[in-house]
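ZP: hey, is the zinc ion complex queued? I don't see it on the tracker
AM: it wasn't, my bad. submitting now with these inputs:
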Amino acid sequence: MGFLQDHVISRREMVIGGAGAAAVIALTGLPVTALGQGASRGKFQMVKSDEEWRHELTSEQYAVLRRHQTERPGTSPLNKEHRPGTYVCAGCGLPLFSASTKFESGTGWPSFWAPLDGAIATSEDRSFLLFVRTEVHCARCGGHLGHVFNDGPQPTGLRYCMNGIALNFRPENAWPAGADANNKTGH
Ligand SMILES: [Zn+2]
């Protein structure tokens, strides 16, 4: 399938949104060339050179956080993460989302209905030409995280569609190794 067809299908996806769209993307793959180039613009508290980011991040993290690429849906282990805890930026460690706002969107990407206060910033993403999407990036390092859509659940009605590779999960009350077995008789 050629690029043009991919592009048309992806644009239709922007209109219909939701789980059906994810299936379309899963079949076609997102046209990487249609996605934005370069890191998010703006002034951020943490500024590093491209060389430093390349050195610190894995190639997959770098491609998403610093080059706005999108991971393949369904590939992130965080899709199946349901423990209480906090999702932090894989670039700088800033806490971004509480697990209490995570929900099953059916898209194949970790999804949240609200970020932590002040954790993220947004900008217009016009890489799809006719469709303006709202890009979400880390408020501290500017790393690209994903996009936010207005078809999420209450109470916000928002769907923060995140690349799992751009996040690290810190479970709450993580037991030290071996503590779990000892703890079973303790209740
Ligand atoms: Zn960050």
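AM: back. The longest strand covers residues 120-128.
ZP: great, adding it to the tracker
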